[in-house]
Amino acid sequence: MLSNDIKSYLDTYYEEMLKLLERLVNIDSGSACKEGIDRVATIMAREYEKEGFEVEILEHGNCGNAVIARKSGTGPEYDGSQSPKTGNSRNHGKVLMICHLDTAFPEGAAKANPFTIKGNIATGPGVVDMKACLVGCLYALKALYALGVDHVPEVTVLMSGDEEAGSHAVQERIIEEGRKADWCIVTEGARENGAIVIERKGNSYFHVRASGRAAHAGIEPEKGRNAIEELALKIVKLRALNDFDRGSTVTIGTINGGENRIVVAESAEMDIDLRYRTKEDGEMLIRQVRDILEQVEIHGVRTEYTFTRNRPPLVQVEGSAQLQRLAEEASQELGIPYLTAVTGGVSDGNFVADIGTPTIDGLGPVGGMMCSPEEYLCLDSMTERIARMGTVVGMLGCLEDVVGAWGLRPRRGPGRALPFGGTDGDGGIP
To answer: Do 315 and 350 meet the contact criterion of CB atoms below 8 Å apart?
Structure first.
């Protein structure tokens, strides 16, 4: 089976993968560390060039560079085969694979906490989110090409340089590439229990500033207009918007204000994070928050805010269930438990699912404590999870029709082995 062949290839090159992983982890590439992100971008660009990819580096002045690597599908063309989204003739379909080059760690984190292996656990800043996943995506594809698989889809790998900061610099390009793709695989790490991610919440945020009037707390407090109190009264109302059963949440992440304990606070600021499962719930929640922010609680205090729509929800669309079935089939072949999860965290896959492209997330290795000094990677998950990722890509190149037959019928060809096991005529996936 293709999955076992990929696993064997990865086992052979395991030490080589670890060396690349160590090199990447020991580079500071937090979202604010442009120099480090650009170094990681250059390394990954060269690795894909070695595999015959056409590589484009998207240079950004205010954040880390992004990388796009593209390679045509393998094997013969199929007469009349059309991309259901573009209408253009295709080889074996088009897959967008999404990674990111940045981490959530500050400059100096790599020196303070370098790549370390203790038994089955590797640690270091960004070791699973997502340095191991960068390595995994590369080697999953290396395996397919090295094995001479003749049904690999056209692959585009997009590595953003500011994912942890919202992917604002590359958002439009992500959407553009998502429109061209038949499927999207997000190579983020699996959950701590090994689950892949099939849905993610959407995310927006507000920055709020209240401006009042300063006054001495002992001599003439009545002349003051307290900006902190204005925000406090709003927070009580904002808290009431939480609907945990529905998955809608409002979180006050930061609050700052005042200059001295004996002075009525003239100014105060806060940051509000919103999460929601559907676009409809998101729009309702955003309206409710706006209404509260625009209400005056204390006469004489002015409130201003800025609003940022970060990412839409990653929801299941037509074709999502079938894509998940491929991941389940590959899991069974490799003996990996098939678990799925819905999470409140966001990824660049949110943008792609929003435009209707079937998207699956969390196909990378297993780890935990992401974005904390205790972030870790389970080394024994490396080759098996990367093998599953590669197997899914290989399977996607065997579909008869991406949309019209999203029942997952394999492509037919006389006597050709199928990645699901068996040969043509066995029926493939029901």
So the answer is: no
Q: Which amino acid is at 65?
A: N
What residue spans in the chain does CATH classification 3.30.70.360 cover? Answer: 202-311
Q: What is the tens place of the pLDDT at every residue in 177-188?
A: 999 999 999 999
116 forms beta bridges with 123
pTM (2 decimals)?
0.85
Summarize pLDDT for 63-120 with one digit per residue, the tens: 999 999 999 988 765 444 555 454 444 456 899 999 999 999 999 999 999 999 999 9
| Cis peptide leading into residue 382 (ω within 30°) | no
* CATH 3.30.70.360 at 202-311, yes or no: yes
Q: Which two tokens stand for residue 62?
A: 């205010």
- Neighbour tally for 390: CB within 10 Å: 31
Q: How far apart, in whole angstroms, are the C-alpha atoms of residue 29 and residue 103?
A: 6
Q: Are 221 and 215 in contact (CB under 8 A)?
A: yes
| Average pLDDT taken over every residue of the chain | 89
Choosing among 3.40.630.10, 3.90.180.10, 3.30.70.270, 3.30.930.10, the CATH entry for 2-200+313-396 is 3.40.630.10
Q: Is the distance from CB of 305 to CB of 208 less than 8 angstroms? A: yes
Please report where in the chains the tokens 């990378």 appear, as a residue.
364
* Inter-residue contact 364 to 195 (CB < 8 Å): no
String of DSSP letters for 336-386: ----EEEES---THHHHHHTT--EEB--EEEEESTTSTT-EEEGGGHHHHH
Range list for CATH 3.40.630.10 in the chain: 2-200+313-396
